[in-house]
Each structure stands twice: as C-alpha cells, then as structure tokens.
User: What shape does this take?
Amino acid sequence: MPASDIGLTMRDLPPRPEGRAAIPYRAAEQTPRRIGVLLIPGFALLTYACAVEPYRAANVLAGRTLYRWMHVSPDGGPVPASNGVAVIPDQGLDRPLAVDDLFVCAGGNPTAFDDRAALAWLRRQARRGIRIGGLSGGPLVLARAGLLRDRRCTIHWEYRPALVEAFPDLDVTSSLFEIDRDRVTASGGTATLDLMLALIAARHGRALAAAVGEWFLHTQLRLPGAQQRSALQHRYDISSPAVLRALERMEASIEEPLAREALARAARVSVRQLERLFAAQLGRTIRAQYRALRLDRARALLQETTMPVLQVAMATGFVSAAHFARAYRAQFGHPPRAERERARGGGPAAARRSTRRVPRGATVA
Assistant: This one.
C-alpha cells in the first residue's frame, strides 16, 4: 500500500473540517518539525499508526502544518507489516534523512534484524544530533546500534527479557514510554500514542495534545511511569491476596527460584494453605505454576535471542540442559532447539499464555 494512499506523505494536509475552530497551541519554530520513520519488516501496524496519526491530527486541529513526515526502509523497497500490509517508503538508506526526529518501528522478532548497513546508518543519523526513538521492538534495534548507552529506555514487555539478557548494562524500565534527552522509547501499541502526545504537549502545549488524544478517544494522557501490563489480579482473574503476593515474588525470581516456604512467608500464610489457594484459584500446584512461569520466560528467550540453550536454562532457574529439555518438552510438546528453529520463521508466539488460568485439575509435568 503506497503511503500516499493513506495520506502519509510529506505534503500539507487538508485544512480542518468546515466550522471546526483551531485549537490554541504554543508556537514553536516557524518551519514544520520533520518526522522520519524507519520501518523494519514485520513492524506492528498499530504501533506505526499511533506514531504517525497524532501528527496528522495535530496539523488538522491546529489549522496549519506543524509536522511533516516521511518513511525510510532498509532496502528502499516496500516494507510489510506483521499483518501483511505494506508501506512504500520515500527513500532507502543510500542517503541521510533530513528530519528532526527519527523513530525506528519494529515488531515480530526484532532480535533477528541484524542489518549492519542499517545500524551504521542509524549511528550516522545520531551523530547529526537528531532525536532518535525506538517503538515496540525498536529499542532492540537501537541497542544493537549502540544508541541507548547511558540512556533510560523501555520496550514492550514481551521483548524485555531479550533486551535485558543481550544488553545487561542498559537502564531498562517497564514504563509505557521514556524520554531521556535525545533518546525516546515506547513499549508499542497505544503506548506509542501516549509518547507522541507527550512530545506534542512539550512542543505545542497540553491543550493541543489533549485535543489530539480526544480525537482518538484517548481522553487521559498517561504518564511515562505508568506500567505496561495489567495488575496481576486482572491477568490471572483471581482475587486471593496471598496468591497474588506469591505470584509477584515468582515473577521477580525467575533465575533463582524461591522455595515454597519463602513464597508462603511472602504470602503471609502457611505452605499448606498456599497450596490449597493455588489449587482453588489457578488449578495448579505452586511448583507447577512456578515451572510454567519459568518455561514461558525460557520460550521468550529462545524465540527472541540467540542465547545458547544452556544459557537460557540457567537464566530460567534450571540446573542442567537435560533437566530443562525434559521440562520444556513436557510443557510445549517439543524440545528447546525446535522452538528456536520455529522462531527463525517468525516473531514471538502470540499464543504464549501457558501461565494463565487453566481448568481445575490440569497439571504441568
């Protein structure tokens, strides 16, 4: 789909609809701010739309062109999104992109993107002093280019284990978005809209940003520190405070699993009582739930990193590769190495939900 077909070219947008009053905004430079989007094959279309559409809306609501944007692709050709829709870029990497802000939009399996020419091009862009951002899986690309050193950053929660394992020295948060000097990152999806509203507010005032958000039925401007994931009680659809406290400790202690006794102390109940609560609320024993959590993390690392299988096993609390392989096969029906082979053909599994509530009586080997 050509960008021009969906109104995403470097041209002035049509005037605001007849009868709509312009929203008051704070003037900045006289010339429009230039926005660039580097699309990595397999990018998430929702993330991309949440990056560009707020600027279009700001232009319409302000009654003048405050922003212009253009697209770039690694090879200069059309870039397919994760759902197959393709965007035709304005240029490739054969020359610099004349922009003020550059956002890298990636999805699917961003750890598989290792285009050295693209990474070198990003470093050259950074040396020009422009602000660079990463969206959804984009921060992994920026990290690989060496552009997140000494910067606070965030990334989609499914990609976070891969980023932390590959770049342990980075300051990675679990926030919706982060703005740290000349680097901005968003965890993807609608968090990208929150980031863009924050950038519009910083440049042209909260009134215009609020109007843009309202246009997209996004009536609350979420702060950067807001968490990406729902509260545990909503994710697991449970209400027991003791089980929730235990799950919180489990999720925070994947590499070095805690004993049942330590989890019971954190839950403020006896081990026997905690086992009864897990059976009633989750249909699993404490041990089975903990193992499922660890194996889910292992699956993410196998799909989204190039870590050796033994290293994945150690990072998820298994004492040996053989023990890990047996547990993995019992959980998912195939060995860890087969998971990696599958991942080479696509991104993280959308159906990775084995730690969710299961029917009472189900077991995990």
Remarks:
- The radius of gyration is 23 Å.
